[in-house]
Amino acid sequence: xxxxxxxxLRESARRIGIVILGVAATLGVITAPAQAAxxxxxxxxxxxxxxxxxxxxxxxxxxxxxTGCSDNGSNRxxxxxxxxxxxxxxxxxxxxxxxxxxxSSTATSSGNWSDHGSGDYYFAVNYGASGLNVTxxxxxVTY
Length: 143
Fold this sequence. Notes:
By secondary structure, this protein is an alpha+beta fold. It contains one helix and nine strands. The chain has one helix at 2-30; strands at 38-46, 50-51, 55-57, 62-71, 78-85, 92-98, 108-113, 119-125, 134-142. The strands form two sheets. Strands 2, 3, 5, 6 and 8 form a five-stranded antiparallel sheet that branches. A four-stranded antiparallel sheet has the order 1-9-4-7, with no helix packed on it. A hairpin with a 6-residue loop joins strand 5 (78-85) and strand 6. The longest helix is centred in the N-terminal third of the chain and has 29 residues, at 2-30. The chain is globular, with a radius of gyration of 25 Å. Mean pLDDT is 84; it is low at 21-33.
Protein backbone atom coordinates (compact mmCIF):
# COMPACT_ATOMS: atom_id res chain seq x y z
CA UNK A 1 0.00 0.00 0.00
CA UNK A 2 2.76 2.40 0.93
CA UNK A 3 4.51 1.64 -2.39
CA UNK A 4 1.34 2.22 -4.46
CA UNK A 5 0.78 5.64 -2.87
CA UNK A 6 4.43 6.59 -3.43
CA UNK A 7 4.20 5.57 -7.12
CA UNK A 8 1.00 7.63 -7.51
CA LEU A 9 2.69 10.68 -5.99
CA ARG A 10 5.74 10.17 -8.19
CA GLU A 11 3.55 9.90 -11.32
CA SER A 12 1.64 13.08 -10.34
CA ALA A 13 4.89 14.97 -9.74
CA ARG A 14 6.22 13.81 -13.11
CA ARG A 15 3.06 15.03 -14.90
CA ILE A 16 3.20 18.40 -13.11
CA GLY A 17 6.87 18.71 -14.03
CA ILE A 18 6.11 18.00 -17.69
CA VAL A 19 3.31 20.60 -17.69
CA ILE A 20 5.57 23.19 -16.04
CA LEU A 21 8.36 22.51 -18.53
CA GLY A 22 5.91 22.76 -21.41
CA VAL A 23 4.56 26.08 -20.16
CA ALA A 24 8.08 27.42 -19.57
CA ALA A 25 9.17 26.35 -23.05
CA THR A 26 6.10 27.94 -24.63
CA LEU A 27 6.57 31.20 -22.73
CA GLY A 28 10.26 31.16 -23.58
CA VAL A 29 9.43 31.04 -27.27
CA ILE A 30 6.78 33.72 -26.98
CA THR A 31 8.79 36.11 -24.81
CA ALA A 32 12.28 35.41 -26.13
CA PRO A 33 14.15 38.67 -26.63
CA ALA A 34 14.70 39.77 -30.18
CA GLN A 35 18.15 38.87 -31.36
CA ALA A 36 20.19 41.66 -32.91
CA ALA A 37 21.10 41.12 -36.51
CA UNK A 38 23.97 42.73 -38.34
CA UNK A 39 25.92 42.87 -41.55
CA UNK A 40 29.33 44.21 -42.54
CA UNK A 41 30.79 45.62 -45.71
CA UNK A 42 33.05 48.40 -46.98
CA UNK A 43 32.77 51.46 -49.22
CA UNK A 44 35.13 52.46 -52.00
CA UNK A 45 34.94 55.96 -53.42
CA UNK A 46 31.23 56.27 -52.55
CA UNK A 47 29.85 59.48 -54.02
CA UNK A 48 27.43 61.86 -52.24
CA UNK A 49 23.99 60.34 -51.85
CA UNK A 50 25.32 56.77 -52.07
CA UNK A 51 22.70 54.38 -50.66
CA UNK A 52 23.65 51.21 -48.81
CA UNK A 53 21.97 47.89 -49.32
CA UNK A 54 18.54 47.50 -47.71
CA UNK A 55 17.88 45.41 -44.63
CA UNK A 56 14.65 44.43 -42.93
CA UNK A 57 14.32 45.43 -39.29
CA UNK A 58 11.49 44.21 -37.06
CA UNK A 59 11.93 47.25 -34.81
CA UNK A 60 14.49 48.42 -32.31
CA UNK A 61 17.51 50.66 -32.39
CA UNK A 62 20.06 50.78 -35.21
CA UNK A 63 23.82 51.26 -34.88
CA UNK A 64 26.05 52.08 -37.84
CA UNK A 65 29.83 51.95 -37.34
CA UNK A 66 32.55 53.04 -39.80
CA THR A 67 36.20 52.04 -39.31
CA GLY A 68 39.09 53.54 -41.27
CA CYS A 69 37.64 56.39 -43.35
CA SER A 70 39.25 58.53 -46.05
CA ASP A 71 37.86 61.01 -48.57
CA ASN A 72 38.98 62.60 -51.81
CA GLY A 73 39.61 65.98 -50.18
CA SER A 74 40.60 67.39 -46.85
CA ASN A 75 37.12 67.52 -45.35
CA ARG A 76 37.62 64.48 -43.06
CA UNK A 77 33.89 64.16 -42.45
CA UNK A 78 31.19 61.80 -43.64
CA UNK A 79 27.53 62.40 -42.90
CA UNK A 80 25.50 59.23 -42.43
CA UNK A 81 21.70 59.42 -42.64
CA UNK A 82 19.39 56.54 -41.74
CA UNK A 83 16.42 56.24 -44.11
CA UNK A 84 13.37 54.00 -44.31
CA UNK A 85 12.42 52.56 -47.70
CA UNK A 86 8.71 53.28 -48.18
CA UNK A 87 6.33 54.03 -51.03
CA UNK A 88 6.65 57.72 -51.75
CA UNK A 89 9.42 59.92 -50.38
CA UNK A 90 11.64 57.98 -47.96
CA UNK A 91 11.74 59.54 -44.51
CA UNK A 92 15.18 60.41 -43.28
CA UNK A 93 16.15 60.35 -39.66
CA UNK A 94 18.94 62.11 -37.79
CA UNK A 95 22.19 62.56 -39.67
CA UNK A 96 25.34 61.56 -37.78
CA UNK A 97 28.62 63.31 -38.56
CA UNK A 98 31.43 60.75 -38.53
CA UNK A 99 34.89 62.29 -38.02
CA UNK A 100 36.89 60.02 -35.71
CA UNK A 101 37.13 57.24 -38.30
CA UNK A 102 39.46 59.54 -40.30
CA UNK A 103 42.16 59.56 -37.59
CA SER A 104 43.59 56.10 -38.44
CA SER A 105 42.80 52.90 -40.30
CA THR A 106 41.52 51.33 -37.07
CA ALA A 107 39.65 54.35 -35.64
CA THR A 108 35.87 54.12 -35.56
CA SER A 109 32.89 56.44 -35.65
CA SER A 110 29.37 55.28 -34.95
CA GLY A 111 25.83 56.55 -34.80
CA ASN A 112 22.78 55.23 -32.97
CA TRP A 113 19.22 55.67 -34.13
CA SER A 114 16.16 54.91 -32.02
CA ASP A 115 13.33 52.58 -33.04
CA HIS A 116 11.33 53.74 -36.07
CA GLY A 117 9.20 50.61 -36.39
CA SER A 118 9.56 47.60 -38.63
CA GLY A 119 10.44 47.97 -42.29
CA ASP A 120 13.23 48.14 -44.84
CA TYR A 121 16.05 50.52 -43.97
CA TYR A 122 19.22 51.83 -45.57
CA PHE A 123 21.70 54.62 -44.98
CA ALA A 124 22.91 57.35 -47.31
CA VAL A 125 26.33 59.02 -47.11
CA ASN A 126 26.90 62.75 -47.59
CA TYR A 127 23.30 63.16 -48.73
CA GLY A 128 22.93 66.52 -50.50
CA ALA A 129 26.69 67.21 -50.60
CA SER A 130 28.70 67.52 -53.78
CA GLY A 131 32.11 66.25 -54.73
CA LEU A 132 32.91 64.39 -51.49
CA ASN A 133 33.61 60.74 -52.17
CA VAL A 134 34.37 58.53 -49.18
CA THR A 135 36.11 55.20 -48.66
CA UNK A 136 35.44 53.14 -45.52
CA UNK A 137 37.62 50.14 -44.68
CA UNK A 138 34.89 48.39 -42.65
CA UNK A 139 31.32 49.28 -41.87
CA UNK A 140 28.95 47.37 -39.62
CA VAL A 141 25.21 47.82 -39.29
CA THR A 142 23.59 46.31 -36.18
CA TYR A 143 19.83 46.35 -35.72
